Amino acid sequence: MTDTSTPLVEIRNLSFARGNRMIFDGIDMDIQRGKVTAIMGPSGTGKTTLLRLIGGQIKPLSGTIKVDGVEVTDLSRSALFQLRKRMGMLFQNGALLTDMSVYDNIAFPIREHTQLSEKMIRTLVTMKLQVVGLRGARNLMPSELSGGMARRVAMARAIALDPMMMMYDEPFTGQDPISLGVLVRLIRELNDVLGLSSIVVSHDIEEASSIADTIYLLSGGKVVAHGSAQALRDSGSEWAKQFMNGLPDGPVPFHYPAMDYAEDLLSVGSK
Amino acid sequence: MLNFIQGLGHSGLSFFQRLGRAHILLAHIVAGVPGMLLRWPLVIQQMYYVGVLSVLIILVSGFFVGMVLGLQGYNILVDFGAEETLGVMVSLSLVRELGPVVAALLFAGRAGSALTAEIGLMKATEQLSAMEMMAIDPIRRVLSPRFLAGFISMPLLAAIFSAVGIMGGDFVGVGLLGVDEGAYWSQMQASVDLYDDILNGVIKSIVFGVVVTWIAVFEGYDAIPTSEGVSRATTRTVVHSSLAILGLDFILTAIMF
Fold this sequence. Notes:
The complex is a heterodimer of chains A (271) and B (257). Chain A is of the alpha/beta class. Chain A has helices at 47-54, 77-84, 102-113, 118-132, 147-158, 177-193, 205-211, 229-234, 238-245, 261-270, and strands at 9-18, 21-31, 36-40, 62-67, 70-71, 87-90, 165-169, 197-202, 214-219, 222-227. The N and C termini of chain A lie far apart (73 Å). Chain B has one domain (41-256). Chain B starts with a helix and ends with a helix.
């Protein structure tokens, strides 16, 4: 058993680059056990990349990522797969297998990883579907589901093997207010009822701050601020203030870097 | 000039990189094949998609190719008074060449393109990533059964093509043009050799099956995960498979016959 007082995920001095572009430049982060941690930042700051790094799908340039005391970057493929069985991940669009029904999608990881009887699998799948409120939709195909329903099915699939942690990649994007409310409630409830630790990557301030115990704000490859939602709103950081309040201008400028406006206009006239 | 040389070097390098990736992928796929032998339902399901659903196009094309062979063969042979040997001509052309080659070309267009599009879209919609995050190897779970299904289906489809083609030749030669039926079939039986002709044809179709399915699953797996990327990958599957089939056909013919 690992020490439960340590953070579930410990990221130290993590750097990652894509081509010549630095995505992360020496970030530190702790994901506490039993808590919902939100990772927020503008689009293109590498929030999804961070989840992939934690899941071991890509390797960092330097730095360490420890999940439940295990260094992810050093793991062999089979050890990594063992670790991933204890991680659930919700992809942005659910990533359901389109050639299988809702039922088979949720049964998929159970069938692949266990030798349970079909009867047992049926019981398990029914329980997972009940949690997300879609027991009646078990025979539908993914193409027949709305976006919000697809994400709930994907959630049921992600918790099929009772993981220790859940990672949500932009769970709130493009949802109507009702499914948004459902998703927000589900993420919090799953976390508390199943004793999970959750990481929510998002740029929806209101939703994420309503469920997150801790928020990390990312920008320009660095953690610019972290703390509870209230602490961030009250913080002196210009950046946190701009992001949390959705101000159009601030440390992230409204204008893309360009030459002087007046000069630009005059140069057109002189041609 | 310098740019031209640079471009040449760049495309050469990327060609060999792709070739390398394709071989590494093949090694992974083949490593997953023994596991699939224990999971027949998965393979049978794929054999339905790549094999059974291709049967109709193979039947129709095979019959037409056989009819054309019967017609053309008769017109040539009748000048030499050798129209009795029509059965030999039709069957040898089909079993040695046209059966494996045309069936493989059709297979590439019908099943290969579908495989690439399916796998490419699975990649684009993150289904493959999701499998990886569920600790399921997508190469073994998705690619290996499809590869095995293609490997098994191709020789069967080529055999069906040849058989139907011979019947097509019989329909035109014997039925419409009046070649003696006994001569058509008996000369065929006397001249077609199990090992030299049929077995070599089967070997060809096995090689084509491996190559076409390999190209198809590789292109899908290696596709850029966008609509445009998947469409390009699908085109490449058909073009590369067709070229590979025709090129390999020459090499195999030179070695075996």
